[in-house]
Design goal:
alpha/beta, five-stranded parallel β-sheet, Rossmann fold, 3 domains, 23 helices
Length: 548
């Protein structure tokens, strides 16, 4: 909340109502109405918090589609931030799919066709040389977290250009709703560098820059200016890179990770979320992480990020990092990634092992005999009946993770995984699926979603004032998530803590990450005697404060 010493520094009347951080909708007290020029601008009735939430729930029920509910919630966020987060916290399991995946995917596709107030900061490459001036236009001076995208690889939907702004907005809403990071410390950013999507360039309503994307060299120069300007304007800020093009994602993370507090959610966050599910799944299948064989469908930033986090966790069980990487195989549109291929990017080469070429995924399953298959391909239905039945022949309890987002891009559905494996699959997906009934058993599919990781990372960084974010911190986060999965959860097929408990999950995970930050000497804050209480003291509570 803004720091205001007295009512003289507050906006008054309609300006106050239009300030989303201070607005109380119809819950202003009589004294506030009298002293702040609100009399007559709001109805006579004074709402309780309970009445506000009840009215909103009724409004939402009357919206016929998930997209319309998403738009409604976005308008609420722009109008009354406190009420928005209070509503989300009232039933996180219900609202998270509306605020973020899967609904945010459709919202991004329609972004330029939806009328609503602008939110976030648009940094156009046309403004190169003036990025610091743009940052100074942001109304708040203490920014701790930026989620920034180029819009080039939005979920599994591809290059959406400036329409991708829905992703930083949604991610930062989860920072607050799930992780308790105060919303006024966050800033969504779209680095608008154009788009190669011809459909968008031909769309008369498209709101982004109408040009093709720049070269890597020009992009690097632009991002350098942005990162330098952020460090100067917001020196305590952590930058989360989100949904960048595949090549940019790895290059930029390598460029900045050792000198700026930053991370890439699509590699490190996805890796930690999947690792958490794998660790939970191994309590069902048995065996150590270092003994497993993983086959990925897809070899982009998500797949490589997951494989790398798995390898680093497996190395802690006695393998060298190279030996751990040798336990993961990749298959992309050109077939099995193996050492003889000449079309590989540098980041894929550690996972190019010696093997004969294979161009069929099911044949690769039969040859590699993985204990787990992990889908990060955005190819809907790629885990077909042949693939899942092959996994079920090879493994008593096959691990099947269909992680592509949104739901329409999932490699298989939960129903297919359980049915084709005769109820033996250990399953997780990137977007939510409803519970599945099979031969008298009810399975609750786990949602392998980065929301278990990045909000907790944000809370830990915020509380400790961490100077860097490391892969070790993500491994710690994954182990902390898995710690909270009970035997009862596993019996139902659930590999992650229930979404309804996600705030307490994030606090627990943040505590584990914070302990590591202090242990590695990366904290800017003094280490407290009671770490749990220290973390909880930093959690944002959506509560109106008295203005008079």
């Amino acid at each position: 909340m803004r720091d205001r010493e007295n009512t003289k520094s507050l906006p008054r009347g309609i300006a106050l109502i239009r300030d989303p951080q201070l607005n109380k909708s119809c819950a202003f007290s009589e004294a506030e109405r009298q002293q702040l020029g609100l009399t007559g601008l709001v109805p006579e009735g004074i709402d309780s918090e309970e009445a506000q939430v009840l009215r909103l729930l009724g409004d939402l029920e009357r919206k016929p589609t998930a997209l319309e509910r998403h738009i409604f919630l976005g308008c609420l966020q722009n109008n009354d931030e406190t009420l928005f987060y209070r509503l989300l916290r009232a039933d996180l399991a219900r609202f998270l799919p509306l605020v973020y995946t899967p609904t945010v995917g459709e919202a991004c596709l329609q972004f330029s066709h939806i009328t609503r107030p602008p939110r976030g900061l648009y940094v156009s490459i046309n403004r190169k040389g003036h990025v610091r001036e743009l940052l100074r236009n942001w109304p708040l001076r203490d920014v701790r977290f930026i989620v920034v995208t180029s819009g080039e690889r939005i979920l599994g939907l591809g290059d959406l250009g400036a329409n991708g702004m829905g992703i930083p907005i949604g991610k930062l809403a989860l920072y607050t709703a799930c992780g308790g990071v105060p919303p006024h410390l966050t800033m969504p950013v779209m680095m608008d560098c154009g788009t190669n999507n011809e459909t968008l360039l031909d769309d008369p309503l498209y709101l982004g820059l109408r040009r093709k994307r720049p070269s890597a060299a020009e992009m690097d120069e632009f991002v350098d200016e942005f990162v330098e300007a952020v460090c100067e304007e917001f020196p305590r800020c952590c930058i989360q890179f989100e949904d960048w093009g595949r090549a940019d994602a790895f290059r930029l993370l390598a460029r900045y990770r050792e000198r700026v507090c930053c991370f890439n959610d699509d590699t490190q966050g996805s890796g930690a979320a999947a690792l958490a599910g794998i660790l939970s799944g191994l309590r069902i299948t048995g065996g150590k992480l270092a003994e497993q064989t993983f086959l990925f469908l897809g070899a982009g930033q998500a797949a490589i990020g997951i494989a790398e986090l798995i390898a680093r966790a497996a190395a802690a069980e006695g393998l060298s990092l190279d030996e751990a990487r040798a336990r993961s195989w990749m298959f992309n549109r050109s077939g099995l990634i193996q050492a003889a291929r000449t079309d590989l990017a540098d980041f894929q080469k550690p996972y190019a092992h010696r093997h004969e070429p294979l161009d069929s995924f099911v044949a690769t399953v039969e040859a590699i005999r993985p204990t787990a298959i992990i889908g990060a391909s955005t190819v809907a239905g790629a885990f077909n009946r042949q693939v899942i039945e092959a996994m079920a022949r090879i493994n008593r309890r096959p691990i099947i993770f269909a992680l592509s987002n949104p739901t329409s891009r999932a490699e298989c559905t939960a129903q297919q995984a359980y049915t084709w494996s005769q109820g033996r699959a250990v399953f997780a997906s990137g977007s939510p699926f409803a519970p599945v009934e099979f031969e008298g058993r009810r399975f609750t599919p786990g949602q392998c979603n980065n929301m278990y990781i990045f909000p907790a990372m944000g809370l830990a960084v915020y509380a400790t004032r961490a100077r860097r974010v490391t892969n070790e911190m993500f491994v710690a986060a994954a182990r902390a998530v898995a710690e909270l999965v009970t035997s009862e959860h596993l019996e139902a097929g659930l590999l992650y803590p229930p979404l309804g408990e996600i705030l307490q999950t994030e606090i627990h995970v943040a505590g584990r990450v914070a302990a590591l930050i202090f242990a590695r000497g990366l904290a800017g804050a003094a280490q407290p005697a009671d770490l749990r209480s220290f973390i909880e003291s930093h959690v944002y509570v959506p509560r109106y404060r008295s203005l008079v």
